[in-house]
Amino acid sequence: GPDYRQFTINGTSEFLKDVQVRRALALSINRETIAKSSLAGLDWPAGTMNNHFFVNTQEGYVDNSGEFGKFDPEKAKTLLDAAGWKLDGEFRKKGGKTLKIEFVIPSGVPASRREGELAQAMAKAVGIQIEVKTVPSDPFFSDYIIPGNFDMTVFSFLGNAFPISPSKSIY
Question: Quick one: which of 81, 80, 98 has its CA closest to 89?
Fold first, then answer.
């Protein structure tokens, strides 16, 4: 169907207030690998949208994912080093605190669990600790997403033949 999945990073959470940490987190996640995992077993090409408004078959489509939409773990490490997050064992620390991101997922959604675990492994490779936290599905949005009680999450947006129309509430 026309639905799509999206990782959401909370730019107001403790560690993600720093734009360099958000950028490093984005660079540490291989979106192509996530897409292939999500569509495994389906006879459908896996790929990222790379545009918030148009799909790649529509007039006006252009890849606007920019440099931080590309998988680049080495650049992620460089950004974290420059931001003062130094590798100490497996994970990075600054001011005595470990760079730990809480990845909140709703219970009973295997795709979210799989995506969280993939992100966890990818981020670990650059020294970011991700804790996948499962919460009840019913209050997922009301108790966690809407009030900002998460660092990072993933969920689906309902799509239709006109990809921009369901995004009106976001933009």
Answer: 98
